Amino acid sequence: xxxxxxxxxxxxxxxxxxxxxxxxxxxxxxxxxxxxxxxxxxxxxxxxxxxxxxxxxxxxxxxxxxxxxxxxxxxxxxxxxxxxxxxxxxxxxxxxxxxxxxxxxxxxxxxxxxxxxxxxxxxxxxxxxxxxxxxxxxxxxxxxxxxxxxxxxxxxxxxxxxxxxxxxxxxxxxxxxxxxxxxxxxxxxxxxxxxxxxxxxxxxxxxxxxxxxxxxxxxxxxxxxxxxxxxxxxxxxxxxxxxxxxxxxxxxxxxxxxxxxxxxxxxxxxxxxxxxxxxxxxxxxxxxxxxxxxxxxxxxxxxxxxxxxxxxxxxxxxxxxxxxxxxxxxxxxxxxxxxxxxxxxxxxxxxxxxxxxxxxxxxxxxxxxxxxxxxxxxxxxxxxxxxxxxxxxxxxxxxxxxxxxxxxxxxxxxxxxxxxxxxxxxxxxxxxxxxxxxxxxxxxxxxxxxxxxxxxxxxxxxxxxxxxxxxx
Length: 472
Ligand SMILES: [Fe+2]
Ligand SMILES: [Fe+2]
Known about the structure:
This protein has 472 residues and is mostly helical. It contains twelve helices and seven strands. The protein has helices at 5-8, 19-39, 107-127, 138-165, 167-177, 201-223, 228-266, 279-295, 303-310, 355-380, 415-425, 429-438, and strands at 48-53, 64-69, 332-338, 344-350, 405-406, 412-413, 469-470. Bound molecules: fe (ii) ion (FE2) (2 copies).
């Protein structure tokens, strides 16, 4: 395939002048388009979608709106503008100028960080691929596709780094991004939560609320990196991530609003007979999505995480705003430990090895803020129910608590009791069947499915009943 890549791929990395990079992308691009057609949104190659396309990084250029067919979307490569005075903010190299190239001694660690991040991007597109069949409105369908094309662009961002800075093994890693697939028993995606299916729209809103927020925190930690191209790439990606979390938060909020309206109208906590989703059901979806997302942060105690920090490759959330020496040599901290008799006490560990825990705690605080807004809305309907994040020990597969079972409140229980009670806390087959029964497509402009309230406003100044998606 011959294409003017400088034209087809909007970029601010001088793509046109870099022969080696162009050759690598010319090989990868057709495979990417094939992947999009095979594994991306179902039945959507001819559909025209009102999409936001980034064509440059400045304020006018990063949000250009138009109807486009998704395979023709211009997946650009953008790095945030460089800061010529930027220095490394943490770890052993603190205070040194940032690296414009990969430091040889940290090459494999950096590649691993980029591959792990990059793998999540196409994974989420694959996970969400069936959702286009059952969108509750054209507005929501458009938002799904917007998230999908931007996750595709995030893959481009990581593939750019692999092609531009890692030579042959970078190119091999880029190829493998299109060969692993979400839920594939032989070649799964790297992280477990990115192999779960996202079959219903309540799950999609939870995904964009919780899982994209994990993305925000990972990107924010990588945006601190001493490897400047990675930092600049992640800083630009964060602008798009904010929209994904907006889709999640407003989506959950609209589900809750509809539920509350039905509860008031029928004076009942069970709104299923009226085509709504019970608050209890929403809580189960929260319990599931939040707990699998905590696993994404990895073990609380991690030598890899300590190394990434000391090497200056991955910082903490808002590293420069933290009030310490940003090196943490010799610092200690207390973390929980599960004792032999299945109780909890604490142990003292090196603070450097607890980087994953620190990032996860910041994630929890950020997740809670949205829940507070949900609860305010529920209270405004005079309904005495509070949604909560389950305890960090609940339903965990990775880290300190992976060997124990607890209630959502964090009370330790036996495996037997867990088996007996988990249907109260996590989505059951029956819950899923019910939620799936609500998933019928609504394609008339401005109309919403029974279980969700309309959005407050449309996209980019357009009315809610605008034709955000044109079918052919
Ligand atoms: Fe992403
Ligand atoms: Fe995202």
